[in-house]
Amino acid sequence: TSGLPTLTPSPIAWTIAGSDSGGGAGIQADLKVMSAFGVHGCSVITALTAQNTLGVQAVEPVSTSMLRAQLDALAADLPPAVIKIGMLGGLETCTLVAEFLQTVEAPVVLDPVLKSTSGTDLLNPAAIDILIREIFPRVTVLTPNLPETELLTGHAIESVEEAADEILAMGVESVLIKGGHAEGDECCDFWSAGGTCCWLTSPRIETRHTHGTGCILSAAIASAIALGQDTMEAVQTAKSFMNDCLLNPANVGAGHGAMMIKP
Ligand code: PLP
């Protein structure tokens, strides 16, 4: 009633990801989502990208020493309730983040960002092995889309449930296989933690403004976990949050534009 801000500390979420100069994906989307959830977002920038709604024009990794400095700065003062990981970019970044994750306890949501829609590599293909061997065992929720699922399992998907089992066998605690790239008037995602699993189905939203959907979904899962939801509840909350974003394009740029991210 005094109008003064609350003195209760907000839960802290970190995003370890790439910058999108166009403001639709990456760090920029993650921080907007965290803010919409009422979570304090901190960022560890792995790479800069020069991009707009038409595509990615340039990518430059952040130096290993600067990456380390960002992680150390946050670890010393802003302990995370959850960590979201997006674009990692290169081999060194992957190795350093893998080592760092051994030193923190928070749950990890990993969006295995491999390529942009426009075809630019956002992870050096040589780093995929490190991602699987050294980061997957620390992951609470992995969020591959269908092409990423095929790349990770090494073959075309025959059954989504079987693909989920194969990915779980790589050491992640749970996996959300996102069905947005499939045909059909419903978008069907499958979440599995092995013993427990569920299908998440919603009507397909026809829009060209899909840039950043993967980032928004994984940042929303992370935010919901930071607020105390269990993993299955968090993926459900995040899917409905992301669908609301898809219904609210920012209508900027000539290409695959960004979405408005509202509480
Ligand atoms: N740029 C950055 C920094 C990202 O993290 C991502 C996806 O995670 C993208 C671009 C790709 O976005 P899209 O494939 O939606 O264009």
Automatic annotation (TrEMBL):
GO terms for molecular function: ATP binding; hydroxymethylpyrimidine kinase activity; phosphomethylpyrimidine kinase activity. It holds the Pfam family Phos_pyr_kin. This is hydroxymethylpyrimidine kinase. Residues 20-259 form the Pyridoxamine kinase/Phosphomethylpyrimidine kinase domain. Its EC number is 2.7.1.49. It comes from the Bacteria. Pathway: Cofactor biosynthesis; thiamine diphosphate biosynthesis. Keywords: ATP-binding, Kinase, Nucleotide-binding, Transferase. InterPro entries: HMP/HMP-P_kinase_dom, PM/HMP-P_kinase-1, Ribokinase-like. Gene3D superfamilies: 3.40.1190.20. NCBIfam families: HMP-P_kinase. It is an enzyme of class 2 (transferase). GO terms for cellular component: cytosol. One of its GO terms (biological process) is thiamine biosynthetic process.
